[in-house]
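Model it.
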Amino acid sequence: MINKLPRWVIAGGAVLAFVAGMINAIGYLGFRHQAVTHMTGTTSLLGIAAGQDNVRDILHFGGLMLSFVLGCAASGLIIGDSTLRLGRRYGVALAIESALLFAAVPLLHLQSDYGLWLAAAACGLQNAMAGTFSGAVVRTSHMSGIVTDLGTLLGQRMRGVAVDARRIRLYLVLFAGFLGGGAAAAFAYSPWQENALLLPATLTGAVGVAYVIYRHRHVRKAHRV
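Modeled.
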């Protein structure tokens, strides 16, 4: 069972899911119509490209996957493991993610695949950073696992098995954040085009700053006790 969820887990998860929802939708709306926050579809497209001997697409999708993996590796290097815990270097990871998204914008204006690769690296970093909290998988960059877990918990509830309401609440918050990010991207893309990516880039940086401030206040309060 999940203990009482800290505010920083709920708030941070909601905002980061919103950010990922925006990034993915902007990728779909852009010149490549390409998802960047999850690798399932990209793996299928890479397989199709390999089967058709399409070297250009093999390089594109392979580069996208490699960028995502490198983002995950950066998270492992900076944070160390996948257990959510106050005090880890999430602020540093979020600052890097924000910088990657800002750097992607001018490249997307040029319709360069490098812009998508930078966005994929940012999403890989974010997805690996989220990890788990008290046994609940906290994924903010794709919803397959979240929807699967919600369906499983629903089935268990129908069967009469006790389920953790806090876990359901967390997953619903993450789902709503990702869905809201997609809607926000659709609203922002028409007038701003690729500049719409500046919003999730700014939000990511803001979450990093907010986390650092919250952590310092928590540490200072603990020292007073």
